[in-house]
Amino acid sequence: MKKVLFIAPNFPPTGGIGVQRSIALVKGLRARGYDPIVLTVSLEDIMRIKAKWDEEPLKELETLNIQIHRVHSGQPYRLIERMISWRLYRVLWTLAYPWFWERFSFWPKHALSKALELIKKEGIELIYSSSAPYTAMELASHVKKKTEIKWVNDIRDPWTEHFGWVWPSKLHWFWSRWKERKMMADSDEIVVVSPEMKRYYLERSLCSKEHIHVITNGY
Question: Which value, in Å, is the radius of gyration of the alpha carbons in the chain?
Answer without folding.
Answer: 17
